[in-house]
Amino acid sequence: MALSLAALKSAHSKRSVFIYGVFVFILAIWRYAAHGITSSPSILPNSPQSPSLTPPDVFDPYKCSSLLTTGSWLNPSADPAKPPSNWQPDGCLYHSYNPSEASYCLQNQQVLFAGDSTVRQVFWETVKSVDPTIVESAERHADIRYQKNGIDIQFLWDPYLNSTALNLIESCRTTRHSQPNAYIVLGGGLWFARYLGDNGATMWKSNTDRIVDGVKACAGFYNVPFFLPVSVPDWENLDEARSTTILKPEVTYMNSYLVWLSQQKNIIVPTSLNEMMTLGAYDSSGIHSVDSVAKAKAGLLLNVRCNQIVQEHKGYPYDKTCCYTYPGPTMTQFAILVFSLVIIPAAYIKSSGLLSSPRMWSEGATGSAFVTACFIFATTLTYCYVADRTSLFIKASKQFWAEDFAIMTGLSLLLGVVTLRKSDSEQGFMGRDQSNEWKGWMQIMVLIYHITGASKVLPIYKYIRVMVAAYLFMTGYGHTIYFYKKNDFGLKRVANVLVRLNMLSCALAYSMNTDYLFYYFAPLSSFWFMTVYFTMKVQAEKNKDLKFLSAKIGISVLIMKLFLSVPGIMEVLWWVLSRVFFVSWDLREWRFRVLLDMYIVYIGMFGAIASIKIAELKLLQHPRWPMTRMLVLAGSALALVAYHIMQVHWNSKADYNARHPYISFLPILGFLFLRNATHTLRNTYSTAFAWVGGCSLETFTLQFHIWMAADTRGLLQVVGSKHRTLNLIILTPLFLLVSNLTSEATGKLTSALVNG
Q1: Which of 108, 240, 476, 638 could form a disulfide with 601 if both were Cys (CB 3.0 to 4.6 A apart)?
Q2: Is 285 helix (H, G, I), strand (E, B) or coil?
Q3: In sequence order, what are the beta bridge partners of 186?
Q4: Integer Cα distance of 94 and 270 in angstroms
Q5: Cβ count within 10 A of residue 565
Q6: Below-70 pLDDT ranges, the chain
Q7: Rounded to whole angstroms, how far apart are CA atoms 2 and 486?
Q8: What range(s) does the Cas1p 10 TM acyl transferase domain occupy (predicted)?
Q9: Residue spans of alpha helices (H) in 353-431
Q10: What is d(CA 37, CA 58) in angstroms, rounded to the nearest whole number?
Q11: pLDDT digits over 568-583, tens only?
Q12: pLDDT tens digits for 57-72?
């Protein structure tokens, strides 16, 4: 970030970015291959009903083996009374299923559980995943069945796996079933160890072999068979009766034999379930899981069986990356990739000369500059696709730690302080240097907010909402000043702004198979730009009349409030868009985002008019200006304090969002006046923050795919899920440099397309 804009424009810097990008890709490929060499072989069955579940090679690209055999808690417990949370398999995103997703996957199918009380726990959590209102029955040693809306989930109490379960499995060859089987879950072992003495392990092995052979014989029906590992007890907290009969060597032997059996007979043994049993994961028995951990176990089985099915049905966000095969490119994506990987590079090489030529990266000629911009833009799209639509880069879950948020914020602040410089030219109120600095540090905070998963922390959420509002304040302020002073309402101006704002977002919507509103900041800025444009354009010849202009802005507020709030108006517009242009945007989400910051745009417009009139009337030279200035600064400080006091009293996002449109101006105006309090403050800025501010649109948009992953739901990583800090150190410079180069390229492409 400390690199100067001039340095980034140089041929040397572009070559450096290219070389660093190649290094990151080589690292990703090396990690991909090394992981494959050391990973365990696939233990998924070769099922005709679930071909996507079968890794074709040793590289485990679908992360099935990782899901089934590895993992750790991102939020481990330090207190036995507090369960761990947020399970993270190595290299993929574990998905927590909601009822609609689980029901879609299991609809018109049966799920069979058979075994002891540890299996029963997983059964109940599976039922709750489709029906959270269900109440567990008090029956302990009995069969249980849940049937609703075409879903049939059955548990057979059979701790010795020698009676009901075996008979039912063997009946698959003679009985005609009305529903297909989604998956079968078997498990047991602790009853053998506790009640059958020295013969327990031998009898367990015999019964296990019989039931596994029975499942294998029914491969056409039980296509996804799970055999749960024997639960490893909390040895130090077992009661005396259990601790003297359940012995560690027996449990170890049983689990080792299951792993061997899985490799010989294609039975799925999710050994990672025992990895979940850490401090805080056990209930008082020392054997069973607490409910939240049992839910994670049931969720893991759903991830294996359902991720491919639900993701294909749902589309983006691609947040189910364990045991999942990314789809091949659509025709549109294929065309974009061919254009990006073949046509543009060929044109670029032709315009630049040979790779060894001194003209490489040169922009001396206009044609070369345009082709270079196309090459950079196309490379960015390709990078996004490879990073977030293939398994080359790994994905990991987010986890908020206050320490991480504080350290990243502190380092960013330090960077801003050490890069403070005097402006090269005299800066007026909210000058360009200061505006870029403001956008820059706010963008950095938004990035930290997203990467650390801080959206769950209400106080941070509130201040981030203010920062988004500040961006829109600057939208209203900057465009109003332009239209007032330039009186330029030509289509070329409109095209320049809209193309510049939307080129990247529109291209990503096609190349990533998302939609335009997903990258919401560009649509939001475009919407409010057009609002400012039409407000200022109507009878523009009267804009010098303060009363008329103020009334016109006030009328615009009322019109937009009615347009956005009255039921039916936007619904008709959305219906037309869906019928004529075949788009299916989320109206509820769009209305929420527009209304949340509606008034701050108009406050920015009024602020721009006030700034212009103060200069026109030379109020800074008025004898009472010093006193007025002191009162404004005192009021600004009070506004910051007042906002902080008020926001503390709202204890939910819904409560705060209801008040945000009416109070967000307090910290924004308060900060703005204090930031411009003196000549020195106005003419001093952080070059690092201003550098980020210069490409803030690109950093906001590209973070979705090349800094985070799974369409912002997870983290992009290159060297393994356990090395989060190292991944951040490697990927952040590339993300920022690509964002900056893309910003430059987009500007040049906009100029070429609009201005000729």
Answers
A1: 476
A2: coil
A3: 114, 227
A4: 14
A5: 12
A6: 1-16, 18, 30-59, 164-166, 168-171, 173-178, 352-367
A7: 34
A8: 317-754
A9: 366-389, 402-418
A10: 7
A11: 999 999 999 989 888 8
A12: 345 788 999 999 999 9
Return the half-sphere exposure (C-beta side, CA atoms, 13 A cut-off) of residue 581.
10
Please report the pLDDT score of residue 71 as a whole number: 94
3-state secondary structure of 135: coil
- Spatial separation of the C-alpha atoms in residues 373 and 380, rounded to whole Å: 11
In whole angstroms, how far apart are CA 382 and each of 14, 209, 260, 417, 610?
Answer: 17, 50, 42, 35, 46
- Burial class of 711 by CB neighbour count within 10 A (0 to 12, 13 to 18, 19+): middle
H or E stretch covering 36: helix 11-38
For residues 286 and 233, is the Cβ–Cβ distance under 8 A?
A: yes
Q: Residue 667 is encoded by which pair of tokens?
A: 């910290």
Helix or strand run (H / E) with residue 152: strand 151-157
Contact between residue 110 and residue 179 where contact means Cβ atoms under 8 Å apart = yes
What is the Cα–Cα distance from 55 to 42, expressed in whole angstroms? Answer: 6
Largest separation between any pair of C-alpha atoms in the chain: 101
β 714-717/181-187 pair status? unpaired
Q: Which helix (H) or strand (E) holds 499?
A: helix 491-511
Residue 41's contacts (CB-CB under 8 Å, 6 or more residues apart) are 58, 65, 263
Please report the pLDDT score of residue 4 as a whole number: 41
Q: What is the pTM of this model?
A: 0.90
Distances (CA, A) of 209 to 183, 404, 545, 645: 19, 49, 90, 67
Taking the CA atoms of residue 139, residue 144, residue 146 and residue 150 in that order, the dihedral angle to the nearest 10 degrees is -170
Rg (C-alpha) for the chain, rounded Å, is 31
Q: Residue 130 is encoded by which pair of tokens?
A: 């489709």
- Cβ atoms of 29 and 753 within 8 Å: the answer is no
Does residue 267 contact residue 261 with C-beta atoms inside 8 Å? yes
pLDDT of 352 reads 65
Dist CA 460 CA 401 (whole Å): 13
Please answer whether residues 114 and 156 qualify as being in contact, where contact means their C-beta atoms are separated by less than 8 angstroms: yes
> At 145, which helix (H) or strand (E)?
strand 144-148
* Phi-psi group of 188: left, alpha or beta (phi > 0 → left; psi -120 to 50 → alpha; rest → beta): left
Q: How far apart are CA 15 and CA 376, in angstroms?
A: 12
Strand order of the β-sheet with 394-397 is 394-397, 714-717, 708-709
Phi, psi of 20 (to 5 degrees): -65, -40
Helix, strand, coil percentages for the chain (3-state, nearest 5): 65, 5, 30
Residues in the chain: 756
d(CA 587, CA 565): 12
Asked whether 423 and 431 are in contact (CB, 8 A), the reply is yes
Q: Where are the alpha helices (DSSP H) in 39-189?
A: 64-69, 99-106, 117-130, 164-170
State the amino acid at position 227 in one-letter form.
F
The pLDDT value recorded for residue 742 is 96
Q: For residues 277 and 290, what is the distance between their CA atoms, to the nearest angstrom?
A: 10
Rounded to an integer, what distance in angstroms lies between the CA atom of residue 436 and that of residue 540?
A: 29
489 within 8 A of 537, measured Cβ to Cβ: yes
The beta-strand segments (E) located in 620-732 are 684-686, 708-709, 714-717
Amino acid at 52: S
**Range list of β-strands (E), 20-98:** 72-75, 85-88
Return the pLDDT at 41.
Answer: 35
Reading the block at residue 155, the tokens are 């548990």
Per DSSP bridges, beta strands 181-187 and 394-397 are unpaired
**How do residues 337-354 score in pLDDT, each as one tens digit?**
898 888 888 887 777 664
The predicted structure's pLDDT at residue 3: 39
Distance CA 368, CA 696 (A): 26
**Residue 340 burial (CB count, 10 A):** 22
What is the rounded distance in angstroms from the CA atom of residue 258 to the CA atom of residue 242?
A: 22
* Opening angle at CA 640, ends 450 and 694, nearest 5: 45
